[in-house]
Amino acid sequence: PEAYYRGKRVNLLIGTTPGSSADLLARVMSRYLSKYIPGGATVVAQNMPGGGSVTMMNHLYNVADRDGTAMGIVVGGIYMRHHFDVRGIRHNLREMIPIFNPEGGGAVIYAGGHLGLKEPKDIMKVQQPVTFGYQTPEGNSAILGQAGFTMLGVPYRGISGYKGSHDLILAVERGELDAGWNTPGAYQISIKPKIAAGIMAPIFQSGLWRPQDNSIVPDPAIPEVPTFGELYRQIKGADPSGPLWDAWFMPLISYARYTIFFPPGVPQAAIDAMNIGLEGMCADPQYQSDVQRIEIDRKCYLKGEARAITERSASAPAGAVKALEALLRK
Known about the structure:
Layout: E1 9-14, H1 21-36, E2 42-47, H2 54-62, E3 70-73, H3 77-83, E4 97-102, E5 108-112, E6 130-133, H4 140-152, E7 156-159, H5 165-174, E8 179-182, H6 184-196, E9 200-205, E10 208-210, E11 215-217, H7 228-236, H8 243-254, E12 260-262, H9 268-283, H10 285-293, E13 300-302, H11 303-313, H12 318-329
Parallel strand pairs: 1-2, 1-3, 6-7
Antiparallel strand pairs: 3-12, 4-12, 4-13, 5-8, 5-9, 10-11
Helix pairs in contact: 1-9, 4-8, 8-12
């Protein structure tokens, strides 16, 4: 493996814009991978945004060299786009070679203080439809919020077009929206202080998907926020079930699933050498510290684990897909 990458440059294509979590992760990775790939290959991060990583994946599949000198990192929404058969996809996801997955993330759905929630289950007392904001309705966090409100029986009105979680916070503070979403890490920084001041109130957290046993567990960083399952049991007295609950796993599995792919046909020698580099990078304490600073879990899934997670992320029961399609048509 040492001879394969000697003197070579590896382009790490980023399927999103600068400043996103996937972009930040790729730039951290490029620094450490260059240290650990046998032969000392140079890794250069390069943005190729468009279509929620569809543009980059199309390029990787149809244009990029298949010698191990091109690989790409996607946003988790790429899986949802495949589930919904979004137009413009010109690559076969199952033919791509996944070589890296970080641990996945989740979402927190919160409300503005003007709704008067004393505890999360008080969301059932709100009389008017809850206005819930997001960027696009098919985004992972947007789906989790919409599915959660629907299963609870909370009337809501989705409002799209917000640029990001910061815009949502401002809109909720102004009373322009009743509810929004944030990542657990950002929730602790941006929302939690406002809860203490009565400006915001938590409703539920999505929980975190664990691929080892296909379970959903609470995010240990925010134990005070109930998972959706916990809140549902408080309100309904039973566990959530049915097609929409099956669909809950789809965005949660793909959430923050920043998979790195090789295109098809890459030589095994390149894959073996890159795996050595990824193993060295993931074991580096400084790398682990750096990714945690950007709110990405330091856990790495490589080789067969990366393949298994990708296959699970790309699959879903037909009934779950139909349930989400019906939800997004509302």
